[in-house]
Write a structure and sequence with these properties.
The chain is mainly alpha-helical and about 375 residues long. It has two domains: about 5-40 and about 170-360, no CATH class; about 45-150, abc type-2 transporter like fold (3-Layer(aba) Sandwich), CATH 3.40.1710.10. Helix content is about 60%, strand content about 5%. It contains 14 helices and four strands. It has helices at about 5-15, 20-35, 60-70, 80-90, 105-110, 125-150, 175-200, 205-235, 245-265, 270-280, 280-290, 300-305, 310-325, 330-355, and strands spanning about 45-55, 75, 95-100, 115-120. Strand 1, helix 3 (about 60-70) and strand 2 (about 75) form a beta-alpha-beta unit. Helix 7 (about 175-200) runs antiparallel to helix 8 and helix 7 packs across helix 9 (about 245-265). The chain is elongated, with a radius of gyration of 27 Å.
Length: about 375
């Protein structure tokens, strides 16, 4: 079979195979809408807080009012004692418990230990951060306002550090996580769909392999550009790369993803076995990309596993060029890694087809 015939045949197979089409195209487009939807607000809002006000002074009530005025926090309960508040926290009816002991702010004004205590459900780090920021700001403002009205009372309150983010000005979680996870989504949907198409069908011949790779690379390239262009714009993701840089990153990423998918699909005797083993890999692959924890801080063998995945280097290249506005030359290392992976997986696919193919697996 010629290269051109193999390309056309792969496109036709994809069009006729509903399962593969749903996984490669429809699922990728669906996740482009679905994944960033929970982060559309950009920040955590109305995080539920229970306040135990043992002081019951005008100053403590002022503090609680300031906390409640923050858009980040909702004072959802005012239990009479700490035991009731902690029960609410254990039952997840609130996300945090704030204890204001008697004379709490008066002790702080005198420079003594105030005894303020805060218990937080640490399951959701973004909500935890929002809760801590709102309470800290309310305490500082309450103490500052009170010292202004008292003669001879001075309390040293350090001015908060003002940070100015360069690449995510609004500090929105969606603007951070969606670009990081997009290459993983594109890789995994292509991987699952390719497994449905080609698992157990190890064709011999470089022309057949090349045609399959070109066809899948084209589909992946179009989907990648859809993410980098339309989806990022629709979600108002900060973008700084020019069209030329995005085209190059998308081209290199698409080729590596297609080669990786073909290689992985050839390792399995049938589509069912492939999907059973490949579907659970999505979350570990995301962690290996370095989006949640720097790869430099990972154990060497874990970082090496991540380096074998196209999504790892595609995420890095996209981060450098599109989110950080770096020139394409600064992304040369991840782009080179994508080229090396592309060649390696294509050669590996050819070798698998040559040495692992049974006569009854050959198809026309």
């Amino acid at each position: 079979m010629s290269l051109r015939a193999a390309f056309i045949d792969t496109v036709r197979q994809l069009g006729r195979n509903t399962d593969a089409l749903m996984l490669i195209v429809v699922a990728a487009l669906f996740y482009g809408f679905y994944y960033p939807a929970p982060y559309s607000q950009g920040h955590a809002q109305d995080v539920r807080l229970a306040v135990v006000d043992e002081a019951r002074t005008p100053l403590s009530r002022q503090l609680v009012d300031l906390i409640e005025a923050s858009p980040l926090v909702e004072v959802a309960a005012r239990p009479a004692n700490l035991a009731e508040a902690r029960t609410l926290l254990v039952e997840r009816k609130v996300d945090g418990v704030l204890l204001l002991p008697g004379q709490v702010l008066e002790d702080a004004l005198r420079g003594q230990d105030s005894g303020i205590a805060l218990w937080i459900n640490g399951t959701y780090l973004v909500r935890t951060k929002a809760l801590g920021e709102a309470i800290q700001e309310a305490i500082v403002n309450t103490l500052k306002n009170e010292t202004k009205g008292r003669l001879g009372v001075r309390i040293a309150i350090a001015d908060p550090v003002v940070s100015r983010p360069l690449f995510n000005p609004d500090l929105e979680y969606g603007a951070y996580i969606f670009p990081a996870v997009a290459p993983v989504i594109l890789q995994q949907t292509m991987l699952f769909g390719t497994a449905v198409l080609f698992a157990g069908r190890r064709r011999r011949g470089w022309n057949e392999l090349g045609g399959q790779w070109l066809a899948l690379s084209l589909v992946s390239f179009v989907l990648t550009l859809t993410y980098f262009g339309w989806f990022f714009a629709a979600q108002d993701i900060p973008r700084q790369a020019g069209i030329d840089a995005l085209l190059i990153v998308a081209l290199f990423a698409a080729g590596a993803i297609a080669a990786f998918s073909l290689f992985a699909a050839r390792l399995f005797p049938n589509a069912r076995a492939a999907l059973l083993l490949l579907i659970p890999t999505s979350l570990p692959i995301f962690f290996l990309s370095g989006a949640t924890w720097p790869r430099e801080a990972m154990p060497g063998w874990v970082s090496a596993m991540g380096a074998l995945l196209p999504s790892t280097h595609a995420s890095r290249a996209l981060l450098l060029t599109d989110q950080m506005g770096a020139p394409l030359s600064d992304a040369l290392r991840p782009l080179t890694a994508l080229v090396i992976l592309t060649i390696s997986f294509l050669v590996g696919s050819g070798l698998v087809s040559r040495f692992m193919t049974n006569p009854d697996e050959l198809t026309t």
